[in-house]
Write a structure and sequence with these properties.
The chain has 285 residues and is α/β, with parallel strands linked by helices. It has helices at residues 35-43, 59-68, 89-103, 125-141, 155-164, 183-191, 211-220, 224-234, 246-253, 262-269, and strands spanning 11-13, 19-21, 24-26, 49-51, 77-82, 110-113, 148-151, 171-175, 195-199, 238-239. The strands form two sheets. Strands 3-4-5-6-7-8-9-10 form an eight-stranded parallel β-sheet. Helix 1 (35-43) links the parallel strand 3 (24-26) and strand 4 (49-51). The longest helix has 17 residues, at 125-141.
Length: 285
């Protein structure tokens, strides 16, 4: 029996009724990329959510994964992101079409604005975000995206978008791990019916050596990575650990057959110290 036959990933419902897996696999440039491991995650481990971006430049490789995995496209959840230098109405639409072409798909399950800064000197970030979002709204209305979202957006970015546009983002994907718990942002997202998704759940490995995490791993007979991922999921956060190693992907999937006690969730909650292991969007206008 394959790993995939032993578990089914729980789904969470977005504000538009679309259901999204609560666990997936991330792809980014940090630590490298292994196409065969992503293929293994889908084909053999039952992972259905694959998260990528134009910035990471893995679209062509992921097209081969989607083609070769043996899983119907309708059963996969494919996330991609618009890079800020493509912000703007026409440029966003062109970038979307190119990404779909590169990935060999006709639609995306979610398309996101990747970062709040437009990276276009002399242009207004807010105006460019609004223009790009208007393009995403049209792609959504046309059925080319099943949902649309943002990544690395803080409360003030979301407030501006809400004022400038029509569709509230379905998802906000932000750095989230025991040391970086943006609780005010999470509270805001839940009030606005925006699903919160976390990336870097292991804090790029830093959480794996934390004494509290190690102690809990020993208590539950699990690995430190499993404790971190379980904590994230138990807090209702869509979680996308990244690994290039097949054995780590298997490990990361095995988090649905145990539950952390409330006092242990609280212990991890207290590890927040505000550190970022990725980009910090706090001061982006």
């Amino acid at each position: 029996m394959s790993i995939a036959q032993r578990w089914i990933c729980p789904l969470v419902k977005l504000s538009n009724g679309v259901q999204m897996p609560i666990l997936g696999i991330g792809t980014n440039q940090f630590g490298g990329f292994c196409q065969d491991t992503v293929l293994y995650a889908i084909r053999d481990c039952g992972i259905r959510l694959v998260d990528t971006s134009k910035y990471n430049n893995f679209e062509v490789q992921l097209a081969e994964v989607i083609r070769d995995c043996g899983v119907p496209r309708s059963d996969l959840w494919v996330t991609n992101k618009l890079w800020p230098q493509d912000y703007g109405y026409e440029t966003a639409k062109k970038a979307f079409q190119k990404s779909c072409s590169q990935m060999g798909v006709e639609y995306l399950d979610i398309y996101m604005l990747h970062w709040p800064d437009s990276m276009q000197p002399g242009r207004c970030n807010r105006e460019l975000r609004a223009e790009a979002w208007r393009a995403l709204e049209e792609l959504y209305e046309e059925g080319l995206c099943r949902s649309i979202g943002v990544s690395n957006f803080m409360i003030h970015h979301l407030e501006q978008l809400k004022q400038d546009c029509t569709v509230v983002p379905h998802v906000n994907q932000v750095e989230y791990h025991p040391f970086q718990q943006p609780n005010e942002l999470i509270k805001y997202c839940r009030q606005e019916d925006i699903m919160f998704q976390g990336y870097s759940p292991l804090a790029k490995g830093q959480a794996l050596t934390d004494p509290t995490i190690i102690q809990l791993a020993q208590k539950y007979g699990r690995t430190p990575a499993q404790i971190c991922i379980r904590w994230s999921i138990q807090n209702g956060v869509i979680t996308i650990p990244k690994s290039t190693k097949k054995e780590r992907v298997v490990e990361n999937c095995q988090v649905f057959d145990f539950q952390l006690e409330e006092e242990d969730v609280d212990a991890i909650n207290k590890l927040h110290d505000g550190r970022h292991v990725c980009w910090d969007p706090t001061n982006v206008e």
